[in-house]
Design goal:
Elements (H helix, E strand, L loop, with lengths): L8 H13 L11 H7 L17 H13 L8 H9 L21 H4 L3 H11 L14 H11 L17 H15 E2 L6 E2 L10 E3 L2 E3 L5 H24 L4 H11 L18
Antiparallel strand pairs: 1-2, 3-4
Length: 272
C-alpha cells in the first residue's frame, strides 16, 4: 500500500477500485500490476496473496476483481480458475470452503460464489458457447440451503457455521452470497431461483435486506436431526452394513416439523 509496506493482491484490488471510483484510473498508474496479479495464480488454479502462495478464496476474488477493473482478466488461466473455485463448494454442506481441506465458512458464500459471475462474464467475452444464460456455474440451491439453515442466528444476524457467534462481517457476506445464489444476470437476462417457500426470497430495500425467519428454529432442528442421521448412514456404509437402520433414521428426520421446508431430507451426496 506504500513504499516499504505490505504487498498482496488485496492492496492491488483496493487501489484499482478506488482509482476507478474516483476516475483517476490510468495505464501509467497501474503499469505492471495486472501482470503481477497474474503471477499470483498458482498450480491449483486459484490466486494467492503473492506469487507462490496457496490459493485462497478472498485473495482470488480480489485478484480477479482487480483484473476485471483493469480489463486484463484474460491474463489468467480462466479454465483452471473455474475448476478450482467450483471445487470449493462442498457436496454435503452446500457452502464454500476458502481453501483446499478447510471447513465451510459462511463468508465464502460471497468470496467464492462472487467469483462465478466475474468468470461467467470473462468466459462469455471470450466467446464460450457452452455457458448457461440462466444459471451460474455452481449449485445455487445448495448454497441457499446452507445459508438459510446453518448461518442464521434466531436473534438476528448471520454467522460462519453452527456453533459460531454472529457478527457484522459474516452477516454482510452471507447476505451477499445469498443474493448471488438467488439471482442470475440483470435486465432481460435476469433469472431468479429461490429455494423453498416464497418468504425465503432476499428482498432489497432502502435500509438493506430482509431475511426469512419464519419456521427457522423448526427447520434448524430438523436439519440437525437429518445431519446426525446422515452421518450414521455414512458410518454404516463405510463399515459395509446394510443401511436399513439409517434409512429409518432419515425417514424419521423427514417427519420432523419443518423437515421438508427446503428439502433438508434429500439423500446426501458422498465423496467416496
Amino acid at each position: 500500500m506504500h513504499v516499504g509496506g505490505e504487498v498482496d493482491v488485496r492492496s492491488a484490488y483496493c487501489a484499482a477500485a478506488v482509482a476507478s471510483l474516483t476516475n483517476v484510473l490510468t495505464p501509467a498508474l497501474f503499469t505492471g500490476t495486472a501482470e503481477w496479479i497474474a503471477r499470483c495464480q498458482n498450480w491449483e488454479g486459484g490466486i494467492g496473496g503473492v506469487p507462490g502462495m496457496e490459493a485462497h478464496g478472498g485473495y482470488t476474488f480480489c485478484g480477479l476483481a482487480a483484473l476485471v477493473i483493469l480489463k486484463k482478466e484474460h491474463l489468467l488461466n480462466l479454465r483452471s480458475l473455474l475448476h478450482w473455485v467450483t471445487g470449493r463448494q462442498m457436496h454435503f454442506e452446500g457452502g464454500f470452503q476458502g481453501r483446499c481441506n478447510k471447513l465451510v465458512d459462511g463468508c465464502y458464500s460471497f468470496w467464492q460464489a462472487g467469483l462465478l459471475p466475474l468468470l461467467h462474464r470473462a468466459l462469455h467475452t471470450q466467446g464460450d458457447e457452452a455457458l448457461s444464460m440462466s444459471r451460474w456455474m455452481f449449485d445455487q440451491s445448495a448454497l441457499q440451503e446452507y445459508i438459510l439453515l446453518c448461518c442464521q442466528c434466531p436473534a438476528g444476524g448471520l454467522l460462519d457455521k453452527p456453533g459460531k457467534s454472529r457478527d457484522f462481517y459474516h452477516t454482510c457476506y452471507c447476505l451477499s452470497g445469498l443474493a448471488i445464489a438467488q439471482h442470475f444476470g440483470s435486465g432481460d437476462l435476469h433469472h431468479e431461483l429461490v429455494l423453498g417457500i416464497p418468504e425465503n426470497r432476499l428482498v432489497g430495500g432502502g435500509r438493506g435486506y430482509r431475511t426469512p425467519t419464519s419456521g427457522l428454529l423448526q427447520a434448524q432442528s430438523a436439519l440437525s436431526f437429518t445431519l446426525a442421521a446422515a452421518h450414521a448412514s455414512h458410518l454404516q456404509h463405510c463399515a459395509g452394513k446394510s443401511g436399513e437402520g439409517s434409512d429409518a433414521l432419515l425417514a424419521a428426520a423427514c417427519a420432523q416439523p419443518g423437515g421438508n421446508r427446503v428439502g433438508v431430507c434429500a439423500p446426501p451426496i458422498w465423496a467416496e
